[in-house]
Amino acid sequence: MAIGERIHFFRNLRGITQKYLGMKVGFPEKTADVRMAQYESGTRTPKADLTKTLANVLEVSPHALDVPDIDSNIGLMHTLFTLEDLRGLRVTEVDGEVCIKLDKSTGKTYHEMSQMLFAWLEQTKKLKAGEITKEEYDQWRYRYPEFDTTQRWVKVPSQDLSDAFVEALKEKK
């Protein structure tokens, strides 16, 4: 998720306006809302010092606003926190081990993500059972969903193509 979307998310979470946030970080009242709208829409990207100031005003870590660096543990944690906010990811414990699961109350997100995760689980089981090689497993992961054997994800024809088929059928009648 882009930094602008995170700023927007936390601003709404705090119940403050763009103008208020812009003024709190030091923009003149006349342009504060416009500047914040530019950052939230992605038209502009805040520099590190402004990101830090925004984080302070929003009472979050700058890592919560930045596009996470998943090569670092802190960046990965903030990615997981974002997934909690947006996709219903939850941390829980099963048999004394920390687990991540999807919240069923998220409806469509839960259904679609659980199908994708079950497809992934299927491939990991095949790898563990020796039914596929590590190379085949990696090919599946890196080209997902192209090589998804569960047939849960199919390409849908474009609307133009669909309309052309409908017209062709009408003409045949």
Give me some keywords for this one:
173 residues, mainly alpha, two-stranded antiparallel sheet, 9 helices, 7% strand, extended
Written description of the protein model:
This protein has helices spanning 3-14, 18-24, 32-41, 48-58, 62-65, 73-87, 108-129, 134-142, 159-172, and strands spanning 89-94, 97-102. Helix 1 crosses helix 3 and helix 2 crosses helix 3 (32-41). It is built from nine helices and two strands; from the N terminus they run ααααααββααα. It is extended and about 60 Å long. A two-stranded antiparallel ribbon has the order 1-2.
Series of H and E elements: HHHHHHEEHHH
**Biggest sheet features:** 2 strands, antiparallel
Q: pLDDT below 50 for ≥5 consecutive residues: which ranges?
A: none
Number of E-state strands: 2
Percent of residues in helices: 55-70%
> Structural class of the secondary elements?
mainly alpha
Q: What average pLDDT do the residues reach? A: 86
Number of helices: 9
Sheet with the most strands: spatial strand order: 1-2
Range of strand content? 5-15%
Report Rg: 22 Å
Alpha-carbon distance between the two ends: 49 Å
What form results from the Cα inertia axes?
A: extended
